[in-house]
Design goal:
The structure is a homodimer. By secondary structure, the first copy, chain A, is mainly alpha-helical. Chain A is about 65% helix and about 5% strand. In chain A, the strands form 2 sheets. In chain A, strands 1-2-3 form a 3-stranded mixed beta sheet. The first copy, chain A, has a 3-stranded mixed beta sheet with strand order 4-5-6. The longest helix of chain A has about 30 residues. Chains A, B: Homodimer.
Chain lengths: ~450, ~450
């Protein structure tokens, strides 16, 4: 909602190269808001603005940028300023970034980073994607059990500036074994001379470093925690996962599930900022796989056919209808989850842009599926004419279905209803009837009449 | 994971009526864990255990029970102890409960509750479902701007015990206008003699009381906040929404979307604990609606038919296949989102139980859809025999599809893969080919041979 108001101002600052205004822009707004605005700019402009920020603030804003945008910026940065930025970033954010960079690039960066940070990065990088280790941060607050509450506050004041949270304090021994847990609330309510060992909770709920990240996020939510500690195989505290990172994991998982349910490979980026080419790959694989299944159905159907001359019409009916249903449900699922994540973006990008994108995308997908259908139909019927009818129909049906599937949720949303009502089966039902009409009309056009 | 280990002990305590053990059980475990175990017991047993807990702990545990279970317990409680429980519950939890109770019952309860709490309940109950007001809590920490940091700590110590969070402190004036915000971290780092007005942030990010709850949850996540303040139309602070409640909202929305995408009305409860009858309603509506669409497709198809005697075979092919695809994708979506939410429950309940449940459910759904198909086919063809073939096939296909749709995600999960790979289009593809075989075999059985 900020975007539409502040973007013109920001663009003006860049054109006029108004360094003071850019600096103010970085410092006044919440880092999350600044990041959202920068992500709307061309990468070089975003870098110009960021270079006006004090380093600490720059690292914070950078951490809020979408990962794909971070990578583009990194590719435009020199090694020296980049290493300073990486060193300053939050431990979990920078590992997310480094994981996506070329390993060689990471190796040239690391020597420029301070020893302690470097060791931390190497350790975090070693945890496999999708594990607790890969989403945790090492910036947690910890204290020994033998000190008093008063001393604890003094130490926490030192830890506070660079810890992800100081509201949950973990009690560890010399070997970093996790012994207990104290919330800031309890610490505030305790008497200054009490020992931490007297007030700490012994039965800490924790997860293991190789636990699945979705499990970790669910555990955190189950207890309503702000953070959950992560221990290694020897029960040593190695990190914490905070509630905001858990929320990200669950949102990504939900979105992945939604996409998979409609036979789309999960996207790395938001639907709005994914290119047509990448979308074609993520959807094409499944469309072709499902086409295979439809061809099999057609093959089975031929055994139930009489030897009627135009028996192929019925053979390919399921294939034609399934092609439409599949392409339409992919579009619908992508648009629906994109709207759920950020429906304000729709206004910035525009419905027309999305529909033209779906149109070009569906021409690629439809063209591919149609060509393969052509050969399958030719092979199964041994004649060219049915192959022409089937493939032309498939192309038209896929294009019609993809555009309908993308448009319907937007229409529903404009009536303030939940776009998810445009379900896969409903899209299939709408597309079925239009598909049938297209199929038989194409057959009419090619043959001039229809089979008896 | 606790359940399987502790449940037998708990059952023994109840049989032996071991009051001391039950009391310990309530106090030693985390309230969330105690609640999960109690939810596995018959309601009267759960009440027996709860009655051994101190009131405050009892209210806390109660708040973690699933809403449906809370309602069952309430129906078994006397007015007096119930009013004490409601008075002690967290402001947001109790309103969630009271919203689901019979308004008359709520009216008999309220007079037993202290004046201040009663006013709070009435105010929270007045916000419409799905609004920020309906998920917020009124138990937030607030301070005036004119006091020092040292005084702030003294006041927070008084507020701490019954506030949902004291880590975010909102600065308000006499008329409760929201002026600023201070995090506990900042407060700890400040000097005791500093004024709050000097260290507070003026540009508070807030939401309005009638904002959509999903929007509120997304705003909170966008900034990674622990809580977000809620103001009324006159900018007065009326509550806060905390990160754990925001996570619940987003999880429910994601689950609702997943269900809607597969044409299932969203469930109020978990799939595992929803009755066959309720499931039949939530799914039946959409199946019948989609059947209507298929009948329309059949009607359109007849215009493309020659006057061939058995032209109806092709007319009803899309209907038969869509019935299977729809029922199968409903089952798959329900099982997949249930597994994502809590796949440990599967082991407790057992795959066999789920499949027999789907079987009985699909007999109800399939029976209904088949009967209606019978009349539609009769009407459209004017003959009984096609109606018999179509309706018998629909029954068999729906049953086959529902059981396959429920079983496949469980099979995939057992190979440690993401069950969401069992997508709607994939289910439809599998069901298509089996459906076609069933259809023509039924036709063979009825007619002894097939149409040319």
């Amino acid at each position: 909602m900020y975007n539409t108001l502040l973007l013109p101002d920001l663009r003006l600052m860049i054109i006029e190269n108004d360094e003071k205004a850019m600096q103010e822009f970085c410092e006044v707004l919440f880092p999350a808001v600044t990041a959202e605005l920068l992500a709307e700019l061309p990468p070089t402009d975003a870098l110009t603005v960021l270079s006006q920020c004090p380093l600490e603030r720059r690292a914070e804003i950078f951490g809020y940028l979408p990962l794909g945008f971070q990578i583009t910026l990194v590719e435009n940065m020199d090694r020296k300023p980049l290493s300073r930025l990486v060193q300053e970033m939050a431990a979990d954010d920078r590992v997310d970034l480094l994981e996506k960079l070329d390993p060689n690039q990471v190796e040239t960066l690391l020597p420029l980073i301070a020893q302690a940070e470097r060791a931390d990065i190497r350790r975090l990088l070693s945890y496999p994607e999708g594990s607790a280790g890969s989403i945790m941060t090492t910036e947690y607050a910890s204290l020994p059990k033998s000190i008093t509450v008063g001393e604890a506050f003094d130490r926490l004041r030192l830890q506070a500036p660079d810890r992800e949270t100081i509201y949950y304090i973990y009690i560890i021994d010399d070997r970093r074994q996790l012994l207990g847990f104290i919330s800031m609330r309890k610490l505030i309510l305790a008497k200054p001379q009490q020992l931490l060992s007297e007030i700490m909770r012994n039965d800490v709920i924790y997860v293991k470093v190789d636990d699945d990240d979705e499990f970790v996020a669910n555990e955190l939510n189950r207890y309503g925690f702000i953070a959950i500690p992560v221990v290694d195989t020897e029960n040593r505290l190695v990190g914490i996962v905070t509630h905001d990172d858990a929320a990200d994991v669950l949102r990504e998982e939900a979105e992945e599930d939604q996409h998979r349910l409609a036979a789309v490979e999960p996207l790395d980026d938001s639907y709005f900022s994914t290119s047509v080419f990448v979308l074609a790959q993520k959807r094409g694989f499944w469309l072709l796989f499902l086409l295979g299944a439809s061809v099999f159905t057609a093959w089975v159907l031929q055994f139930f056919q009489g030897s009627g001359e135009r028996g192929w019409i019925i053979m390919f009916l399921p294939l034609v209808m399934a092609s439409g249903g599949n392409a339409g449900s992919q579009s619908a699922a992508l648009v629906i989850s994109a709207l759920a994540r950020d429906h304000a973006r729709l206004r910035v990008i525009g419905t027309f842009h999305i529909l033209t994108r779906e149109l070009s995308l569906s021409l690629i997908l439809g063209g591919t599926v149609a060509s393969i259908s052509f050969f399958c139909a030719w092979l199964l019927t041994g004649a060219i004419a049915p192959a022409i009818v089937v493939s032309t129909t498939v192309l038209l049906v896929v294009v019609m279905a993809a555009v309908t599937g993308a448009a319907m949720p937007i229409v529903i949303q404009s009536f303030d209803a939940d776009p998810a009502y445009m379900s896969t089966p409903l899209i299939a039902a709408i597309v079925d009837v239009i598909g049938v009409i297209i199929y038989f009309n194409v057959a009419y056009l090619v043959f001039g009449n229809l089979p008896a």
